[in-house]
């Protein structure tokens, strides 16, 4: 029997965790409150989830009593990743952007009823940080069982290589299946217990090696929209040699960052719509950026339920998507978090 989940969504962004909750097809669940300090992200969240109570403020503005009054038993969150990225300064707990997460770690032991379940997403690199060690100490103090992962959407059949760190925690006596009950190890392969969750989300039994879809399954068809995303002459001449170029038949794409569409190098794949790539004559290539809708599709945001407000620019959309998560991956992990437990 599925537990009843009352979810607090912290660092909610554009609602990736909320969509993952919906995608997990759980019967007894609701987001009781969401919190994010970003005005732009909050606008998108409220546009898509007008019925959810949303706070546009810092987490540090909530006391332990405030959190208790929210009535949640599940915490889902994506704390700021910039302090831990491999290309950043890696200031870790000394980065001001980590301050709210440190505050949260101090508040958790003060709660009258700490959450039964916790699901957290961050970048690769967090697992080697002081913030990570501090968080595990807090979870051990509060008697949580934990499971940690480094996973990409490709392992779930989605053609994207967005490698991310995930931490799952549940309060004892609840436990994870033995194969993932390794609190000091970060799992990088697809365990059988998670494979079962993937199959159940897909709605059918599949082979152990999950088939990766091709990018054509995620593309738009409106030519007028696509022409707007063609690479400029300046970009082609300067960056063609370093671009990750894919076709609709490819089964992979690189991680889309918040700078996609405006910085060409290392921010995400570009799409070749036909013909052989001509390095000697860059302007004769039929290359374009993925649209924001296509990036959202690859990140598994539902086409019928996720939309940006009409006045949002392309740059705003790319930035918000680049700061978000893969919905399908999290929905599978959520299934693992609440199932296969033993008392």
Describe the protein in words.
The chain is of the alpha/beta class. The chain folds into 2 domains: 5-208 and 325-338, Vaccinia Virus protein VP39 (Rossmann fold, 3-Layer(aba) Sandwich); 215-322, Alpha-Beta Complex (DNA Methylase, Chain A, domain 2). Helix content is 28%, strand content 15%. The chain is built from 11 helices and 11 strands. It has helices at 16-23, 39-48, 64-69, 99-107, 130-141, 192-202, 223-227, 233-239, 292-298, 314-322, 327-338; strands spanning 5-10, 29-35, 54-55, 74-77, 117-123, 144-151, 164-171, 186-187, 245-246, 270-272, 287-289. The strands form 2 sheets. The protein has an 8-stranded mixed beta sheet, sandwiched between helices. Strands 9-10-11 form a 3-stranded mixed beta sheet, with no helix packed on it. Strand 2, helix 2 and strand 3 form a beta-alpha-beta unit. Helix 6 (192-202) crosses helix 11. The longest helix is centred in the middle third of the chain and has 12 residues, at 130-141. Residues 203-208 have low confidence and may be disordered.
Secondary-structure blueprint of this entry?
Blueprint: E1 5-10, H1 16-23, E2 29-35, H2 39-48, E3 54-55, H3 64-69, E4 74-77, H4 99-107, E5 117-123, H5 130-141, E6 144-151, E7 164-171, E8 186-187, H6 192-202, H7 223-227, H8 233-239, E9 245-246, E10 270-272, E11 287-289, H9 292-298, H10 314-322, H11 327-338
Parallel strand pairs: 1-2, 1-4, 2-3, 4-5, 6-8, 9-10
Antiparallel strand pairs: 5-7, 6-7, 10-11
């Amino acid at each position: 029997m599925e537990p009843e989940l009352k979810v607090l969504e912290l660092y909610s962004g554009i609602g990736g965790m909320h969509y993952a909750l919906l995608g997990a097809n759980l019967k007894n669940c609701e987001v009781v409150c969401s919190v994010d300090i970003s005005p732009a992200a909050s606008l998108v969240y409220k546009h898509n989830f007008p019925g959810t109570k949303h706070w546009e403020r810092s987490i540090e503005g909530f006391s332990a009593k405030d959190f208790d009054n929210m009535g949640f038993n599940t915490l889902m969150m994506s704390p700021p990743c910039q302090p831990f990225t491999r290309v950043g300064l890696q200031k870790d707990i000394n980065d001001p952007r980590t301050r709210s997460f440190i505050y949260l770690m101090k508040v958790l032991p003060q709660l009258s009823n700490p959450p039964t379940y916790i699901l957290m997403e961050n970048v690769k690199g967090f697992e080697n940080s002081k913030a990570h060690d501090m968080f595990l100490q807090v979870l051990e103090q509060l008697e949580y069982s934990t499971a940690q992962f480094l996973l990409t959407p490709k392992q779930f059949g989605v053609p994207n290589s967005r490698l991310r760190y995930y931490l799952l925690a549940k309060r004892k006596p609840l436990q994870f299946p033995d194969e993932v009950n390794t609190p000091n190890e970060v799992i990088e392969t697809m365990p059988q217990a998670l494979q079962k969750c993937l199959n159940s989300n897909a709605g059918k039994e599949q082979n152990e090696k999950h088939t990766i879809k091709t990018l054509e399954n995620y593309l738009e068809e409106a030519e007028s929209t696509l022409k707007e995303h063609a690479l400029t002459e300046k970009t082609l001449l300067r960056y063609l040699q370093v671009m990750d170029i894919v076709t609709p038949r490819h089964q992979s794409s690189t991680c889309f960052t918040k700078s996609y569409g405006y910085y060409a190098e290392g921010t995400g794949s570009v799409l070749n719509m036909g013909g052989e790539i001509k390095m000697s004559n860059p302007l004769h290539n039929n290359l374009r950026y993925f649209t924001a809708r296509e990036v959202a599709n690859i990140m598994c945001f539902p086409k019928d339920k996720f939309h940006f407000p009409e006045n949002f620019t392309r740059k705003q959309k790319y930035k918000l998507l680049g700061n978000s998560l893969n919905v399908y991956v999290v929905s599978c992990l959520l299934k693992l978090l609440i199932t296969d437990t033993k008392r």
